[in-house]
Amino acid sequence: MADMSDGIACSVTTRSHPARAVAKKCDPGGSSPRHHVRDDDAIYAALTPLLSARSSGRIWTGTGYDRSRRLGRFKVPDMPVAVYLYSGGWTRILVFDLDAKVHGPDSVIRDAQWLRHIVETAGGVVVEDVNPGSGGRHLYVPLAEQLRVEHIRTLLSAIQPFCRTLDPTPMLNCATGCIVPPGSWTKEGQRRQLVGAVSEAIELLSRRSDRGLVARLRAALGAGIAAQARERSTIPTEGVGASRRLPAEVVFHTALPQHVTAFAIEGTMPRGFWNTRSEACQAVLYACAVRGWSLNEVVDQLDRGAWPALAAVYSEKKRTTAEALAPQWDRAFAHAVEITDKHRSRAHTKQHTGGLIHSGVHRDWLAHSRKWAQLEYRGSRHLHVVLAVLQALAVDAARAGQLVNGVPTVETGRRGLAIAAGLIPDRTIGDVLMELRERPGSPILRMRPATGVLADQYALVTPATGAGDERQLIIEDDPIRRDRARVEPVHPIWRLVGLHLKQAYELIVHAGLRTPADVFAAAQLGASAGSETLNSLASLGLITRSYGRCEPGTRTLDDLSAAHGLDEVRLDTIERHRRERAEWHAWLELKGHIAVDDPALLEVTAARVPTPPPGWEISDKEALWAALMADGPPTDQPEHIGVVEEAVGLLMDELGATILVP
Description:
4-stranded antiparallel beta sheet; Alpha-Beta Plaits; 45% helix; 27 helices; disordered N terminus; 5-stranded antiparallel beta sheet; alpha+beta; 3 domains
């Protein structure tokens, strides 16, 4: 077929990728001078589909990018157009927008070189363009996994002190964040020019960066969270001595960065990368270590004369090459092991759930509680959240609870349950617990309310269903229902893809059900809702469907979790909970030592403690103390959340909605 764009015909066969066909027309030789492209329209047509997160873009109207329009396949608008970076709150591209208005084009070039260096060193690939009118530049870094803005905000904050021309605004707005792509018109009346060959850009955008790039960049810049450093397990290495190397499943598969090989061969040190030759040498060794090299291979490279400039540095030490290299190699290798993120491992099989807990009494209680919830909440939008909270209670009771006269008891707070329930927001956990406590026949009985540093204490009792005097205990011995009750933490991926998919998945993978009819009957799903559930699981790769059969899929829950960076989210949540507990305990300590005659402290305290209603008196100070502290210490003004983000979060929390990501 043929499409006309401002007088330019682009012929594309149905069997070839349109971007590659345009690349051949635009760059038939496979290369072009840097900062120059032969056909801006063809560049736009080739790269825009690979950069845009949506099928629509935003058009410049003279006052801003405030008019939306659908992006054509090859048609280039005759005014500046910006493509969206996020779809449904998720992005697969990291864009660095370098603005030359304040600091000038030279600063932009230096910052672009520095950013390219740290990204390529961490296993990323970069596509770059330049605005010939202003000198500003865009660096496009395609990601292997989809991330939310929360995953990227910390990285941008860590980069800004080193990169003063960076404008983080486009990447921090998941609703309307957009960027002008290569080949599009600019506000200055020129076209953004691709740096390098279009065929190379298409190949990089299609191949994408190595998995876990953002996590490694954060670690390299010192922006990693403390909990991650404490909890990360040491990566096993292969070989011993000078043959020691990283295992094949965690190494980078990209080529050594150009500036690294340029120093090793010619001794050139681009401005903005390193301050001394020692730093440059260390960078070369680190780049080799993360790509699976051993010390013997580096020494062989120097002895063969492949890197004469680097060899000259170590020949000055008047020792053998191996002896001169060894101390610096040990430091570079240790750093490579430290920041190589576990998400990169294709053989990663660690369960986020912590594994199955074998406890008969807790399993019986969970089986009875699940049946009670399915009867009491049948048709309710809260059912799947309630089931997750009950499972988390069983896990906490099995891990740290006690048996009192054969009845499991547990002292737990909503933050601890939030982790075991698959990262459900702790406020939602609190609402569910409150509802369960007040519901007749509930499987939980609060034995002691939270006071001070002590959490609520619950007894996990036998639930009862029915009304009034006809209420009956759920105590029948159903071995099938008991076997399907799994006392293990809820996997965090269900918080993302939807808790309503969890039961059908477990019936197929763990219970061994293979026909849709059996799954629908066991999960109490209708034909329409059941088919939709199975289709969703199949689209995620968790199951495979054939005619009349359902089988476990090619992807695991851990695979999906690693692809979406949920391990980082979990560690961030644990660290946040740790800080909140520390603040709460500090506040309790402060409240316990306030002097009555200290006007300053009394003034601060009075401003932060709610005033009782007029005419309300209470003589029981312990009751007042418990009431004031039931929800923890007063908090500062929460961070502003946009209307769209708040609405999406509400739908996910209350309705079990799922963000559909391509």
